[in-house]
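Bile acid:Na+ symporter, BASS family: structure, please.
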Amino acid sequence: MQTSVMTQWFLPLALFVIMLGVGMTLRVDDFRRVLKAPRAVLVGLLGQLLLLPCLGLMLVTALELPPLLAVGLMVLTFAPGGATSNMLTLLSRGDTALSVSLTAISSLITPFSLPLLTLMALSHWQGDAVLPDFPVLESVMKLVLVTLLPVLLGMLVSGHSPGFSQRVKGPVKILSLLFMVVVVTGIVAANWGRLPALVAIVGPAALLLALLAMGSGYLLARLMRLQASQQVTLSIEVGIQNAGTALLVTGGLLQSAEMSASALIYGVLMQLPALLLVGWRNRDLVLVRQRIQ
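Here you go.
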């Protein structure tokens, strides 16, 4: 199966199902929480929407990544958080409510902000290489249909039929995972011959960016004197992004295998520092079990 089929059909479908599942976990109270505790949410949005792209720009510039790979990594920094960051926050005993609220708000913002920021990134590197044209309006419409609409539908289903929502959450997660496996397999296959070289170039930059993002998110939250659990949450929310959304832009709209590989490599490597954080936050549970035994 050709990569274009993967990115044009399977990826939007996979992302729609994923965001539908995200919407089923959201409530109207997740938005109201912004009014009750605005400082933590605003700091989190600042970290996601401003701090992470700035870190990405400084890093890819300092490391002089090739334009296509640099833009792919930048698109990933423009993407929202998602179900993965919510799950990792739960596992690391962070503020899950804050994580869900950030997911809810960023899901409303990024369909509009991501295309504009991507256009800026393409313009920045346009003089260094021949880059593909980027249809901004089409991108906004597609992101609204594939990311924002399913979130709203998921919230509607969850609000009006909570029993049905609980029953289908499991199948929705399994289906979205299967779709993403197909998409990732297609992207890897398209870059198979160049994959070792791409990983050698992008891998260190992606891992370093993930470490810097998580560390900066934690320091920002600490500087703003947020609670310890909120500091952990912001560390994860700034470092863990929705690679599926980034791949929709790089593969589905820009149709660039190199950009997609860059976003995908970050999407894999960002899990490593996050899992280390989960282990560190649960180290006391391990010690307790050892003492009991």
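Notes: The chain has one domain: 3-280.
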